[in-house]
Amino acid sequence: MPKIYLSPAYHKWNPCSVDGCDETTHNNLYLDELEKYLKACKIEYKRGARRVPKSNENSNALLSRAVRESNEFCADIHYVSHTNAHNGNVRGYRPIIYPGYEDAKRLADILISKRKEIYSYPITLNTRTDLYELRATNATAYYEEHVFHDNKEDALWFHNNMKLIAKKTAEGFCEYFGIPFVDINEENKAKTIIDLLLKAVELLKELFKF
User: Strands 126-127 and 140-148, how do they pair?
Assistant: First the structure.
């Protein structure tokens, strides 16, 4: 079974241009949606700590713990979920990988192609060697910078499309692993239809005293 480690942002407080939200909170909300698809697609996962914004938790300790847990879990993918910031005027999807790794580039190509299906603003794949979660993890690491959270339109797009982003990301993971994708929306529809049919059968039994 494929294994993914989910690592949310661990910042103490990175305010978002959407009132009342912050980078740590909205990335965890997104990962809540992604988990549903991973379960449906039979992808085993482990998730990093859910930091309480403005708490006295140590960000570096949480980051070190995430890398340690990912390596002990023997994850196939270490998936980092962050959002970006600049000057409030920039929009775009800017994921990051460690340079020189074919698997990371293949995963990036797949996930970027999925994001292009739903996101119309600039997309740039970056490489970095200084990020701890890219250089210290054993798994193929992919570092999301979904949107610029200091740009209100970009941040609102992220907030309004978390379920769709999660679906497309899960599609990408399934393509990378070579396994079938399970659409939880279609699965739920099928369950609803089956439940309705079973209730109809029970009503008919009662009506005709089968």
Answer: unpaired
Distance of CA 134 to the CA centre of its chain: 16
Sort strands 3-8 and 96-97 into parallel, antiparallel or unpaired.
unpaired
Q: pLDDT band for 208, please (50, 70, 90 cuts).
A: confident
At 109, the amino acid letter reads D
Per-residue pLDDT, 185: 85
**3 bridge partner residues:** 44
d(CA 118, CA 131): 27
The rounded radius of gyration (Å) of the Cα atoms in the chain is 20
pLDDT tens sequence across 13-70: 999 999 999 999 999 999 999 999 999 999 999 999 999 999 999 999 999 999 999 9
Task: Give the side-chain half-sphere CA count within 13 A for 44.
Answer: 8
Q: Which residues pair with 140 in a beta bridge?
A: 77
